[in-house]
């Protein structure tokens, strides 16, 4: 594996007395798409929230580009180059699409380049351009997901974290999202993705982790994942090839 | 009779603009943090005490006194924020956080009041007026310059706040925090810092209102603290929780209610009637006057 841009080691995050992460260790290679699979309640979202600074780990280390970021404030972590597309999108519902994008660039002060980035994202997401002046709350689920991705990109992240980007979306939109993920990765963004939809993830991801009950229980290539009998039954089982 | 009615309406609107200014600060804090700051008025009172002290020592001009009141209220407000609100600052930190910060602000209310009376122990101090001349005549009506200043300031502050919130980077951050606090944090906005700046801004607005009020009344007492919190809160409730236009509407409405009920029933019934109307409104339309005027569900702040 090439050089790791994100190294998580022995991270414990707890809600009160309940440990949601019980010592998670994994790494994300620079330039890769790394996918984290796991059942509901396994700690996937907790890990994403911990990496982006919303939750503070009780123990362990998170290194990004060599620097320790565990327990740092979210705005500091964004400034270092990590952006999270949160679960359920969390757009700013009463702000326009353009304002949502501007908020995503809050850490930057290069006004001209921000305007260029907005224009560029509007070419990538033509639906958003049509609705530029509309409140984000009036957008469809798929459009909100696109907006959440675009907003995260406005901070020009080196590492994009995505928490279940396909959740609750129609199959066509899901394909569109994964096409965009592959595109972003080709353009040089490292992506660390949480996904339930293992079939879609298998098409794009370079490395897989499986998390169960707060612990990493599998790490391997897409090939190894597809060959693992237990995982196949749990995550790829019922769907035709 | 008609002249009386007009004069009362005019007086009510002028008094109401002072309430509107008070309510704007109170509402700004409530709208952004979703927390009631009971020490809002006492911080204003402390600013007015600082100005009174400066006045007794140095007899400076009105602008200096206004600046001292605003600076004093802002500092006292920042102190309240650090102690009561920063530790429980997270929106959605749950009921415990909301109650802890509210009770904490009540404790600081008492503390600020004690501090003021230790500093300047007499119950009442004179305060120099903003303007010493006679009131302006508008045909048969009269208008005090101090109240005109309140109306002008309230109008300017309204437009200024609107611009600040809709045209600036800071305003974008404030609206983002109000709209979706977690998303704002993920977008790289330093939410605790936004809270602190909002708090300071609200306390400065309160300080401006406080200066105009004590300069109009030409006196300062420790009661100013409770009075300001109450008027700011009632005006906010009348207008609609956490809505800035609502704060202005609520402030003006409270001024009109007070001046008319004072004229109709006498000063001893003034506050009673204001509370009665507040109670009736909250029972019927808890989202307040502004939402009623817009004929829509309770607006987001």
Task: Spell out the key features of this protein.
heterodimer; A: alpha/beta; four-stranded antiparallel sheet; 10 helices; 10 strands; B: 301 residues; mainly alpha; two-stranded antiparallel ribbon; 12 helices; 4 strands; globular; disordered C terminus
Short précis:
The complex is a heterodimer of chains A (241) and B (301). With 241 residues, chain A is α/β, with parallel strands linked by helices.
Strand order of the largest sheet of chain B: 1-4
Largest interface: A-B, 26 and 18 residues
Percent helix of chain A: 25-40%
The share of residues in helices of chain B is over 70%
Tally of contiguous helical segments of chain A: 10
What structural class do you assign from the helix and strand content of chain B? mainly alpha
Tally of alpha and pi helices of chain B: 12
Order of helices and strands of chain B: HHHHEEEHHHHEHHHH
| Poorly predicted residue ranges of chain A | none
Element string of chain A (H = helix, E = strand) = EEEHEEHEHHHHEHEHEEHH
Helix/strand-derived class of chain A? alpha/beta
State the CATH topology of chain B: ABC transporter involved in vitamin B12 uptake, BtuC
Query: What would the average pLDDT of chain B be, to the nearest integer?
Result: 90
Mean pLDDT of chain A: 92
Shape of chain B: globular
C-alpha end-to-end distance of chain A: 28 Å
Weakly predicted, low-confidence segments of chain B: 296-301
Q: Per DSSP, what share of the residues of chain A sits in E-state strands of 2 or more residues?
A: 25-35%
* Strand content range of chain B: under 5%
* Number of extended strands of chain A: 10
């Amino acid at each position: 594996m090439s050089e790791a841009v994100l190294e998580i080691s022995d991270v414990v995050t707890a809600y009160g007395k309940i440990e949601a992460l019980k010592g998670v260790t994994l790494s994300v290679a620079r330039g890769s798409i790394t996918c984290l699979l796991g059942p509901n309640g396994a700690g996937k979202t907790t890990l994403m929230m911990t990496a982006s600074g919303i939750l503070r780990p009780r123990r362990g280390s998170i290194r990004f580009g060599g620097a320790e970021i565990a327990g740092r404030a979210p705005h500091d972590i964004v400034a270092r180059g990590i952006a999270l597309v949160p679960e359920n999108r969390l757009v700013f519902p009463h702000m326009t699409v353009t304002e949502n994008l501007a908020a995503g660039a809050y850490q930057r002060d290069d006004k001209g380049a921000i305007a260029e980035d907005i224009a560029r994202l509007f070419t990538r997401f033509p639906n958003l351009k049509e609705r530029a002046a509309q409140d984000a709350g009036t957008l469809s689920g798929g459009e909100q997901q696109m907006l959440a991705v675009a907003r995260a990109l406005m901070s020009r992240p080196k590492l994009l974290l995505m928490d279940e980007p396909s959740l609750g979306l129609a199959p066509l939109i899901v394909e569109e999202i994964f096409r965009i993920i592959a595109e972003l990765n080709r353009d040089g963004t490292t992506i660390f993705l949480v996904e339930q939809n293992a079939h879609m993830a298998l098409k794009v991801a370079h490395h897989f982790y499986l998390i169960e009950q707060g612990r990493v229980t599998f790490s391997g290539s897409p090939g190894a994942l597809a060959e693992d009998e237990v995982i196949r039954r749990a995550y790829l089982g019922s769907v035709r090839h | 009779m008609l002249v009386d009615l007009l004069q009362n309406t005019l007086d009510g609107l002028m008094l109401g603009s002072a309430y509107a200014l008070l309510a704007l600060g109170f509402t700004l804090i409530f709208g952004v943090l979703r927390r009631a700051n009971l020490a809002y008025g006492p911080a204003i009172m402390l600013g007015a005490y600082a100005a009174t002290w400066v006045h007794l020592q140095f007899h400076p001009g009105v602008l200096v006194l206004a600046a001292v009141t605003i600076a004093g209220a802002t500092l006292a407000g920042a102190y309240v924020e650090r102690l009561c609100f920063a530790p429980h600052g997270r929106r959605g930190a749950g009921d415990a956080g909301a109650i802890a910060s509210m009770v904490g602000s009540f404790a600081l209310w008492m503390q600020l009041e004690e501090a003021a009376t230790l500093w300047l122990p007499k119950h009442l101090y004179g305060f120099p007026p903003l303007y010493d001349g006679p009131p302006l005549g508008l045909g048969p009506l009269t208008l005090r310059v101090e109240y005109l200043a309140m109306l002008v300031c309230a109008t300017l502050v309204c437009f200024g706040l609107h611009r600040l919130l809709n045209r600036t980077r800071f305003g974008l951050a404030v609206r983002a925090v109000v709209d979706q606090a977690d998303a704002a944090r993920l977008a790289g906005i330093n939410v605790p810092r936004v809270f602190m700046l909002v708090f300071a801004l609200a306390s400065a607005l309160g300080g401006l209102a406080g200066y105009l009020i004590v300069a109009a009344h030409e006196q300062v007492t420790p009661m100013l603290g409770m009075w300001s919190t109450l008027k700011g809160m009632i005006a906010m409730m009348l207008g609609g929780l956490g809505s800035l236009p609502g704060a202005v509407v609520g402030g003006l409405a409270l001024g009109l209610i007070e001046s008319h009920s004072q004229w109709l029933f006498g000063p001893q019934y003034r506050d009673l009637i204001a509370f009665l109307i507040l109670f009736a409104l909250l029972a019927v339309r808890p989202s307040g006057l502004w939402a009623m005027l817009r004929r829509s569900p309770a607006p987001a702040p």
